[in-house]
Amino acid sequence: MSSQIRLRILPSIRCLFDKRVQVKVEGLSPHRNIELRSKLVDDRGVVFKALAKYRADPSGQVDVSRSASLGGSYTGVEPMGWLWSMAPETPHSKLLKKNVLTPTLVELEALSAETGEVLVRETHERGYMMEGMMRVPLKEGRIRGVLFIPPGKGPFPGIVDLYTLGGGLCEPRASMLANKGFVVLALAFYGYQDLPKEIKHLDLEYFEEAVTYLRSHPEVRGPGVGIVSLSQSGTLAMAMSSFLPDISATVCINSCNANTVFPLHYKDLVIPPLMPILSNVAITDSGLLDIRDCTPDPSLEENHASVIPIQRATGHFLFAFSEADRNWNSAFFGRQAAAHLKSHGKDNFKVVSYAKAGHFLEYPHLPYCPTTMHAAVGSVVRFGGEPKAHADAQLDLWEQMEHFFKKHLSPKSNL
Fold this sequence. Notes:
Layout: E1 6-10, E2 14-16, E3 22-26, E4 33-41, E5 47-55, E6 62-63, H1 81-84, E7 87-88, E8 104-112, E9 118-127, E10 134-140, E11 143-149, E12 156-161, H2 172-178, E13 183-187, E14 202-203, H3 204-216, E15 220-230, H4 233-243, E16 247-253, E17 264-266, E18 269-271, E19 282-283, E20 289-290, E21 316-322, H5 330-343, E22 349-354, E23 371-373, E24 380-382, H6 387-409
Parallel strand pairs: 2-9, 12-13, 12-15, 14-17, 15-16, 16-21, 21-22
Antiparallel strand pairs: 1-3, 3-6, 4-5, 4-8, 5-7, 8-9, 10-11, 11-13, 17-18, 19-20, 23-24
């Protein structure tokens, strides 16, 4: 490696995962062709990689925030393309981060395009918790999860984070939302610690207990709390907003407006799940399952019992959906949910849509996941979308969510 060539990551070699950085390679010969390679290993041990081809400018510099990639994992000017375009070496793997107390390490290398020689290498740290953040494992009554409390003088607005189907606990989104000034409860509901490994129905009273706990926490400012959900947990979020008091703001990402997979119980009420139309499963040329059209239309009369009565909700909704989602027809369901509220004289909702994004809309710069194992199906399925459009959607939605929660959980906010 040449001592004259430098790889700089600005403003710092360490940052939070959702932050943008500037990557520069300096000290090259004018117009020299290089390859920029990036690599990380997730908490499962799966290797993710990306590669882009650049040509130095007349001063011998490649500034990834200004220079266009000429080929590889992405093309054009993409400041964070080296991260969001990463693909797993193990097919159909979704990046896994279990331990948010440690950063994700990304190795960046600049190589000679002619010889393959490594010219310079640097390791970049992308963390999940800002300095002073408290991570509190929660075992309170039946509730299991982790509470994230931001530094500074509270109390703060509170949010329940429901991840998608699959069991266990997912903490990255919750920890990074907490960095924005919220107390966030990452809530598990099966397959975690002493919770049932499998479930036959969803008990809304468990989630009611979690909301009651969060509202009563001394670091949480009421009167209401928020919910963020994704995919099947959107059903739970809508039901919580419909039946439980003091839910002020609910984000439903690529969700269905009717109950699916499991019966949903609340006291003496049972909301049955929609029954999938198995004959609508398609098989792609590569042998993958496409299940987009397996979930029935909730508006049909025979499915009305499964529709979540969101007209009962007193809080606000943000319905976000991807037009290219192949898990199910999120755009159809999201528009149907909005129309349902409107038909009841409600205007307590906002709709945002993303034309070419896929199913897993999460936090900025997370590598795109087009295919992976589906917890309910038990097979690898398509999740849809295109990498760049998906990356752009995650960035936009992250900003939309912060604005939405601050507006509806902080009445005095100017947002």
